[in-house]
Write a structure and sequence with these properties.
This protein is mainly beta. Helices cover about 5% and strands about 50% of the residues. The protein has one domain: Jelly Rolls (Sandwich).
Length: about 240
Amino acid sequence: MEQVVSEQLAGRRKLEVFNGLSLIPKWNQPGTSGDTGGPSNLPHGTYSWIPGNPGSLNIRPVRRSIGKPWDNYYFYNTIQTETTGAVYFSYEMSVMFPTQKDIDACTAWENEIEVCEAGLAYNMAWQCLLHTAKPAWRLFDLINQKWVQIVSIPSPAPKPGQFMQVLSKFRMDRSAKTVEHLTLAVNGTEYPVESVHGAKLKWSAGTNYTHNAFQLDSDGKGTSYTVQLADVTARRL
């Protein structure tokens, strides 16, 4: 029997649930973000967030010069600033675009859990491309700073006013300093992934946190759009 399961059955380990995350009054928004994350000094638009279940986010990006990255929006929330003994993690949320114009104006949606222990970051992120004939689901390789396409998961076809429910599961391995994307479930259908990537030293040795995040990518034309988020929940075991 796996040690985590054995400890749970013995009452020495329990599932921790952080729900109601769409009720957060204010998310951290460090500024404009590129395709692989990180703030920049390029022109950045504005946004408004109305907490609730669902919460509503209105994005007003700026139009960038040709050759510059689009004005994307990265939001994160710090769940904890202490170390955790958890091994398994999941992140769940439902996403809805009220109109077809909102879908057209957003090129991609991303979600993420990141755990940092002594400056070493274990990144658990997914991206969904909304307008592509190619495989739409990509996971993030933090070491090589690139998205990796997962061809086994069907491309979604988001519809105006309908929520898309996504649940992702991960496993941390502190000995190997890796994180594994285990599965991704879309609207209740779960797909195996089992892709392993390394953790990366990002911060000073005294840095510890667990955060949840999401990102919305613009169309590059400065088109405003709205998205709603519901049932945003992080879990760890």
